[in-house]
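Reopening this one. Same input as before:
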Amino acid sequence: MTATLRSITGQFEFWKKAKMPSALKSSETPKVIVGCGTSYNLALSIAAAMNTNGLNAIAVPGGEWITRPEAYCPSDKLDVIALSRSGETTETVAAARISRSRGHHVTGITCAPGSGLSAESDTAIEFDTHPEEGIVMTSSASLMLLAGMALAGVEFGADDVENAEALMQRFDAVRVSSYSGRSHFVFLGGGTNYGVALEGSLKLQEMAICYTQGFHPGEYRHGPVSLLDERTAVVMLYSDSTREDEAALVRELQDKGAFVIGFGGPGDVELSHGFAAASAAIGVLPTLQMLGERFAAAKGIDTTAPRNLTKVVMLEAK
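Same output, byte for byte:
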């Protein structure tokens, strides 16, 4: 078993012992959630959950928030929530520091207690993550998503943790050969599932050096479907409110040659789950990580050393 695989399968114990923050109180003050890479993908799902629960929120890449905040949230009165596994990502730490200089309250979420992000935050939410986690974010991503969703008022209890682990194990029982011949993966999800769909796409791209894309389900018909053929695999993250529409799209894509893995709905591989609509994004994340690991193993790729990547992106000062 690789270190990456151990960090994926072993993350649930860290979920159980992590102390999550209380839900934010209802407020008209906008919330800007910043991060880079995986953390930005998580921010998209967290912002969607906050908006669903009556909190005004937007996700912004760290570098964009530094350079052009007016393009995303022109309000002078706002709160910033910054996510960084290492707590040392240059753009995220700078976004936190600059936000405080603008008079904004900053909450930092990190898996590195005492990091630069914690020092630049008014409120620091810190976790211990799996000790074998390498360059690819696994347990840390889940912990930060859990924390952000808790701030949004999304509950994820002990039964949900067991359900997430069981879902991952059910997927792992699927024959890798059923999808390992595909060379182009498309991840689809709407609402709170959108950011996690992008994260699934990123994980497979990083771990298996594979061409991937991520979209809102309905958007896929508007141009990107032109790339679909018998080499395509589609991962559909179904939403309760739009399941029929998404199932219709899946049938169209299957007719065009796609192999479909359906989370919470129909597909060539159907993975039902009992998560509430808001918590499904958390519940499916470890399974998407497992998809990346298994596909990489089928291609003989070492996920502990992904090409061109480092564990922390730190930029030289200008």
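So the earlier flakiness isn't reproducible anymore. For the record, The chain has two domains: 3-151, 158-298.
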